[in-house]
Write a structure and sequence with these properties.
Largest sheet: 21 strands, mixed
Number of domains: 2
CATH architecture of the largest domain: 3 Solenoid
Helix content: under 10%
Structural class: mainly beta
Oligomer: single chain
Number of helices: 3
CATH topology of the largest domain: Pectate Lyase C-like
Number of strands: 45
Length: 469
């Protein structure tokens, strides 16, 4: 019996050791010194193993006060120990967010230690400093690396790559039936463009570095973006226009300029966004109808299991842009849109017309219906609203008001935030109404909201069928 127990213990130890693994990435020589931030020294290891140093990248955040934050990343499997030393100044306390990760760091002198139970995306913040924090991205081990010699594979090795015409004006044009792989340590400067193509996969552990746009998907179908990191694009990180079958998975994004949205989808359907970390100085995820040369309705969009950090504007935004003809005809339908299991780390917007962690602003004859927000955790609102649902005519963006907002559910919403303004529910006129808004288990600062009065919502005219459970 005793021998059997010893053998079982040895087998368990062997299996545990096999399940714990770390893979770090090379850093291209051309950015090694230029992009390093020495605010922190970061090491990782499997429990009881040798510590491995990580390269601490400099990333720029927050357009209001552009600041140099830090970022590290690696691949891992199983439980991993992390050690962080703050190199500049002392500190009193440290937090690891999202709080839903349940990570409790411990401090020993100038060192902070904590353990992660596998892949995760986290912000390490000393004394509440969110502008010079450390972003830690632990990716899953890669399991689907393509054969670099296979037909239809576009492979980028470690190093810096620029398209013809240079990074400012050039772009990488991706043909149909192509897998684009950015190996660890690969850095692409310039936009990646998918236009009028199908069956494209863009993946790897490389960087897209300071492009005009990160990835543009237009008039295309079946395009997947997986695993990349985007550092300070001028405008969008991933932009979709009049496309179908888009998957955006496990991307990490930083931006600090005006109009530097994260993921914007215009006239796109059958879209899945999952396991992303977006820190942007404009909307993190925006879903629109018509704009520019893109036409068509929007259906079946899901954003899930992700972390959104809007230094400026909205974590989520639906509906301001659409199609009008002769001022009051046309319009798009935007329907079947879901945000599920989302951590919102920040919402900061001082313009009352543009607030809301969960924002639906129906303009340009848009009809927006069947929207679900479920399991949303809001940790901080510097200035803004919990939600804003309104049929609008915004003369900056619209040529007509929207047609309406119908059937919106907020379920299992928690907000632990102090800078919350009164949320808004408002229609436009008798024909352009907001109807069918359901609140189920909404808690603000630990208090369950049992009525519209508890919510403190400013319910305007032409809004009906609003219930709180």
């Amino acid at each position: 019996m005793k021998r059997t127990m010893i053998i079982a213990a040895l087998l368990l130890a062997a299996l545990t050791a096999r399940a714990q693994k770390i893979e770090t990435y090379p850093v291209p020589r051309g950015i090694y010194y230029a992009q390093h931030n020495d605010d922190y020294t970061v090491r990782v290891r499997v429990p009881g193993g040798e510590w491995q140093d990580l390269y601490e990248y400099k990333v720029l955040v927050d357009m209001d006060r552009v600041s140099e934050a830090s970022m590290v990343q690696f691949d891992c499997e199983g439980r991993i120990e992390v050690a962080v030393r703050k190199n500049n100044g002392t500190f009193r306390e440290v937090a690891v967010r999202p709080l839903s990760l349940g990570i409790r760091p411990r401090t020993e002198g100038d060192m902070v230690f904590f353990t992660i139970d596998g892949p995760c995306k986290a912000s390490v913040e000393f004394d509440g400093d969110r502008r010079h924090n450390l972003h830690l991205f632990a990716n899953a081990l890669q399991s689907d690396i393509p054969d670099r010699t296979a037909e239809g594979v576009m492979w980028f090795d470690e190093g810096i790559h620029e398209p013809e015409g240079g990074a400012k004006d050039g772009e990488w044009l991706i043909p149909s039936n192509t897998t684009v792989y950015l190996a660890p340590g690969a850095v692409l400067k310039g936009k990646i463009s998918c236009r009028n193509v199908e069956n494209v996969r863009i993946t790897g552990r490389g960087f897209v570095f300071q492009p005009q746009r990160g990835i543009e998907i237009a008039y295309s179908k079946n395009v997947t973006v997986d695993g990349l990191t985007f550092v300070n694009p001028t405008h969008y990180t991933v932009f979709g226009g009049q496309s179908k079958g888009i998957v955006v998975r496990n991307i990490k994004s930083f931006s600090c300029r005006g109009w530097s949205d994260g993921i914007d989808m215009m006239c796109c359907s059958d879209v899945l966004v999952e396991d992303v970390f977006m820190r942007n100085s404009d909307d993190c995820v925006a879903i629109y109808g018509h704009r520019w040369d893109y036409y068509g309705d929007v259906r079946n969009v899901e954003v899930r299991n992700s972390t959104l950090w809007a230094d400026i504007a909205h974590p989520t935004n639906i509906g301001i842009h659409g199609y009008t003809k002769e001022g009051d005809e046309g319009g798009n339908i935007l329907e079947n849109i879901t945000f599920r299991n989302i951590d919102i780390l920040e919402h900061d917007e001082d313009d009352l017309d543009y607030q809301g962690c969960m924002a639906i602003c129906a303009g340009d004859c848009n009809l927006i219906r069947n929207v679900l927000y479920e399991d949303i955790r809001i940790e901080r609102i510097e200035e803004g609203q919990l939600f804003h649902f309104e049929v609008v005519y915004n003369d900056k963006y619209n040529t007509a008001p929207g047609r309406g907002i119908e059937n919106v559910t907020l379920r299992n919403i928690t907000a632990s935030a102090q800078g919350i303004r009164r949320p808004t529910i408002r229609g436009y006129d008798q024909q352009r109404r907001v109807r069918g808004i359901r609140f189920e288990n909404v808690r603000v600062n630990g208090r369950r909201m049992r009525s519209l009065k508890d919510l403190g919502a400013a319910v305007g005219d032409h809004a009906e069928d609003i219930t709180v459970k």
